[in-house]
Design a protein that fits this description.
This protein is of the alpha/beta class. The chain folds into two domains: about 140 residues, Rossmann fold; about 150 residues, 3-Layer(aba) Sandwich (Rossmann fold), CATH 3.40.50.2300. Helices cover about 45% and strands about 15% of the residues. The chain contains 13 helices and twelve strands. Helix 10 links the parallel strand 9 and strand 10. The radius of gyration is 26 Å and the shape is elongated. About 45% of the residues are buried. About 5% of the residues have low confidence.
Length: about 325
C-alpha cells in the first residue's frame, strides 16, 4: 500500500507523464542529417555547372542537398596555400564524407587533414604516386575517387595543335609553378615537342599579373600558338585567358570544354562535368555505407576534342575538314 500523501502521488505522476511525453517528442524529431564537406581549389562562380553535375550524381544515389544531406563548402579561389587550413577546418566538423575537387592540391590537402573521414577526390595526376591510395583497384585507405588524367594528356594536345598549325615552329606553354605536377607537365610538353619537331617556350604564372606578362612575352617573341597546362588556378581565370588569347589573336589549346565554350579555339580532355557526376555517385555510395578502401579509383576512357569554328574564323584560320570531322563537338 502506498502511504504517500495524495499530493505527493499526484506530483510524481505528473513528473512521470512529463518524462514520457518528452521521450516521445524527442523520438519524433528528425535525426541529424549526414554532412558532406566540399573542398575545392576553384571558385563557386567558375564551377557552377560542375557543382550541378555533382548534385546530379548525389541524386542518382538517393541524396538531395537540404533534404537528406547537408553540404559544407570551402573554396580556395585558386589560392593553393589556403587549402590545408580549409581542409583541417572541415575535418574538425562532424563530417560523414570529405569531397575534394579542383585537382591535386585539394586532394593532397584533404588527405593530410584526416586519416579517418572518408574522402572522395577529383585529381588530374596519379593518386598512387601522390600517396592517396595504395592501388587503383584496391585503394586500401580512407580515400578514393577519379583520376581525370588532365596532367598526362599534354602530348596529345600539342599534337592536335601542331596538326592545326603545321607552319608554327615554336609553341608557348603556360604552366603554374605552384601546381604540384608543374615540372612533370613541362617535361611531358618538352618531350612531345621534340617528337613533333617543335620548340617549346615555357612561361610560368601563378598570379594575374604574371599571366598578363606571359602574353606580352608571347607577342614580343612572335610565338604563333599557345598551349595552356591543365591547372585549377587557370580554371578560375578561364575568362581572362580566353580574352587575352582573343585580344592577341593567339591560337590556343586548352584542357577542358568549358574554355572552348567560352570562346577558346580548341580543347582536348575528358568530360569534366561527367567526372563530377561520378564523384557525386561515389559520395552517395559512401553515405550509404560503402568504404573508400573498397571503391576502385575511376579512370575515364572517353576523351573529347572540341573545336570552336567561330573563334577560328575570327583568327583567320581554316581548320582542316579531317580535324573537324574528328571533333566530338563543333561550336559554330
Amino acid at each position: 500500500m502506498d502511504h504517500r500523501s495524495p499530493l505527493v502521488r499526484a506530483a510524481l505522476a505528473t513528473v512521470f507523464v512529463f518524462g514520457v511525453l518528452c521521450s516521445l517528442v524527442a523520438g519524433a524529431q528528425p535525426s541529424a542529417l549526414p554532412v558532406i564537406g566540399y573542398l575545392s581549389a576553384r571558385s563557386p562562380e567558375d564551377t557552377a555547372h560542375l557543382l550541378a553535375a555533382y548534385r546530379r550524381g548525389l541524386g542518382q544515389g538517393g541524396f538531395v542537398e537540404g533534404k537528406n544531406v547537408t553540404i559544407e563548402y570551402r573554396w580556395a579561389l585558386g589560392q593553393y596555400e589556403r587549402l590545408p587550413a580549409l581542409a583541417v577546418e572541415l575535418a574538425r566538423r562532424p563530417l560523414t564524407v570529405l569531397v575534394s575537387t579542383g585537382g591535386d592540391p585539394a586532394a593532397v590537402a584533404a588527405k593530410a587533414a584526416t586519416a579517418t573521414v572518408p574522402i572522395v577526390f577529383v585529381m588530374g595526376s596519379d593518386p598512387v604516386k601522390a600517396g592517396l591510395v595504395a592501388s587503383y583497384n584496391r585503394p586500401g585507405g580512407n580515400a578514393t575517387g577519379i583520376n581525370i588524367l588532365t596532367v598526362t594528356l599534354q602530348a596529345k594536345r600539342l599534337e592536335l595543335l601542331h596538326e592545326l598549325l603545321p607552319q608554327v615552329t615554336t609553341v608557348g606553354f603556360l604552366v603554374n609553378p605552384s601546381f604540384p605536377a608543374a615540372e612533370s607537365q613541362v617535361r611531358d610538353a618538352e618531350t612531345a615537342a621534340r617528337y613533333l619537331g617543335l620548340r617549346i617556350h615555357v612561361m610560368r604564372a601563378d598570379t594575374d599579373r604574371e599571366i598578363d606578362a606571359a602574353f606580352e612575352d608571347l607577342v614580343q617573341r612572335r610565338i604563333g600558338a599557345l598551349a595552356v597546362a591543365g591547372d585549377p588556378f587557370f580554371d578560375t581565370r578561364r575568362e581572362k585567358l580566353v580574352a587575352l588569347a582573343a585580344r592577341h589573336a593567339l591560337p590556343t589549346m586548352y584542357h577542358f570544354r568549358e574554355y572552348a565554350a567560352a570562346g577558346g579555339l580548341l580543347s582536348y580532355g575528358i568530360d569534366i562535368a561527367d567526372a563530377y557526376r561520378q564523384v557525386g555517385v561515389y559520395t552517395a555510395r559512401v553515405l550509404s555505407g560503402a568504404k573508400p578502401a573498397d571503391l576502385p579509383v575511376i579512370q575515364p576512357t572517353k576523351f573529347e576534342l572540341v573545336v570552336n569554328l567561330k573563334t577560328a574564323r575570327a583568327l583567320g584560320l581554316t581548320i582542316a575538314p579531317s580535324l573537324v570531322l574528328r571533333a566530338d563537338e563543333v561550336i559554330r
